[in-house]
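Standup notes, structure subgroup. Blocker cleared on the adenosine monophosphate input:
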Amino acid sequence: MMRTVLFGPPGAGKGTQAARLAERFGIPAISTGDIFRANVGQGTALGLEAKEYMDAGLLVPDSVTNAMVRDRLTWADAAEGFLLDGYPRNPDQARELESMLDDAGVSLDVVLEITADVDEVTRRLLSRAEIEGRADDTEPVIRRRLEVYAESTAPLADFYRERGLLVQVDGIGEIDEVTSRLVEAISDSSA
Ligand code: AMP
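Run returned:
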């Protein structure tokens, strides 16, 4: 049983690591980016609303995102734990998450920050853009997403450090190596 948040700059390998940790700990990885992309793909009202922000590299408005996560956390698979990947994305969302969990009488166990320098993640994003062809992986949009990360998301480190929940993990290296660091960080935090 583990309730955890994973955050880090775009291109730091967050999605890959989230899937691996979820499997390892038997909890669902809940990626707000994946949920938005699925809705865009299906042409739902939520997808239509989110698409313009995603394509511009901006955050989807908190009201939309928070409501979506509040609903997702009520699913049966999240009752025993979850790994949130890509949410919260700013301190207001983090406060909203706290209140959702408070309402359910539970709390986060640990918050993992994957760290990576800007040059490295920019290089990774540009190469991923060529391979996957994601609509939000063009160079100007990548630059915008990195700016949004620095301005809005990076402050989560202080937010969670103050709450004694933050563990930072170096995201540079082989995928397996980074997974091992994350698993170790989780084990240490629950020791
Ligand atoms: P990701 O796959 O996590 O990089 O997310 C892709 C895009 O989805 C982001 O650039 C945002 O436009 C949107 N998005 C994902 N998660 C959030 C969130 N927690 N708050 C606002 N927008 C989000």
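Discussed briefly. Residues 10, 32-33, 36, 53-54, 57-60, 65, 86-87, 89, 93, 136, 145 surround adenosine monophosphate (CB under 6 Å).
Next: hand off to the docking folks.
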